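Hey Z.,

So I finally got round to the adenine thing we talked about over coffee. Here's the setup:
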Amino acid sequence: MNMSATAPLSDAMRSFIEGLPKTELHLHIEGTLEPELLFALAQRNNIELPYDTVESLRAAYAFTDLQSFLDLYYAGANVLRTEQDFYDMTAAYIAQARADQVRHAEIFFDPQTHTERGIPMATVFAGIARALRQARDEHGFSSVMIMSFLRHMSEAEAFITLEQALPLREQYADLWSAIGLDSSERGNPPEKFQRVFARCRELGFRVVAHAGEEGPAAYVSDALDLLQVERIDHGVRSEEDPALIERLIKLRMPLTVCPLSNLKLCVVDDMRQHNLARLLRAGVAVTVNSDDPAYFGGYMNANYLAVASALALSREELVQLARNGIAASFISTAEKERLSIELEQYARSH
Ligand code: ADE
Ligand code: ZN
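And the result:
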C-alpha cells in the first residue's frame, strides 16, 4: 500500500484553487523569513550563522514538535535588526501572498522576540507597517497587525510589552487593532494571561489566541471563557471534546487552521488524517492559513492544494473555506461585502 497516495488534483482543480480569492488570518511575519533572505540579512548585519549554506539551514527544518520549531524560529529572528529588515521581510511575504491571490492578511508579530534583543518596539512596528501601507496604497492589499504575547514569558512581561506599544497606537491605528497569544502552548494555559487580555479588551483591541494546537481541548474552552477571544488559532484538538465542538458550531467561532504546519510539527502524521474536512462538514467555521510558511513548506496555495488533495475537498467546500475566512476577518462589513462579491463571482464563473 502506497502510504503517500492522495488523489491527484486535476489541472482544472489546481487552477481553480490557485485563482481563488483568499484571506489569510493566521500568519506569523517572523515565520515568513525564507533562508535566502535570512542569509542576506545576516550578511548585511554582519551576523555569523551556525550554517554554511542556505541548503544546510533548510535541511535543519525537520521538526518533531512545536518546541523544536520554535527554537529555530527564534534563532532565525536574530538577523532582524533594522527597520529595513522588517520592511524587507514583510514586503517579501506580501509578494508571495499576492501571487496566491490573497486579498487581505491578518499578521501576527512577536515584539518580545525583538525587544528582548534590544531592538526598539518602534523599529518593529515601523518596518512591518511601511510594507503593509505600501501594499495597500499600490495594490489594494489590506491587512491587520496582531501584536502577540509570547506565552512562555510571564504575564508581567506581557503587560510591559503592552505598555511599550501603547504610545504607538495612534500612529498605527490604521493597522494595529488586535492582540494574540502564541509560542509554547503546553504548560502555558490561557489563564496565565487572563488579566492582560482583560486589559487589552478594555482598551478596545480585538483578541485571539493560539489554543488546541498541541495543548488540550480544555485550553480552547479556557481561551473562550477566560480570554474571551473572537477566534481560536489552530483549535484542531477541540475535536477531543464533542461538547466543545457543539459550542464552536453554535457560536460560529472561527478556527484558523494551518494544515502544512500541523503536518510539519507532527500534530498529524499524515495529511489524510487531518480533521479539517470533518470539522468543515460538521459546520465548524474553519479557515485555511499558512502559519510560518518559510518553515513549513508552503504559502496559502500550497496549504489549500494539500488539503484539497489529501481530503478530497469539493469546489463548493473550497469556496466555503474561503467564505469562512472573509466572515472571520477583522475588516469592516463593507469590505467583507466587497470580498464576498468577488469570491462568489469567481465561484460562479470558474
Ligand atoms: N509562533 C509561530 N508559530 C507558532 C505556532 N504554530 N504555534 C505557536 N506559536 C507560534
Ligand atoms: Zn501560529
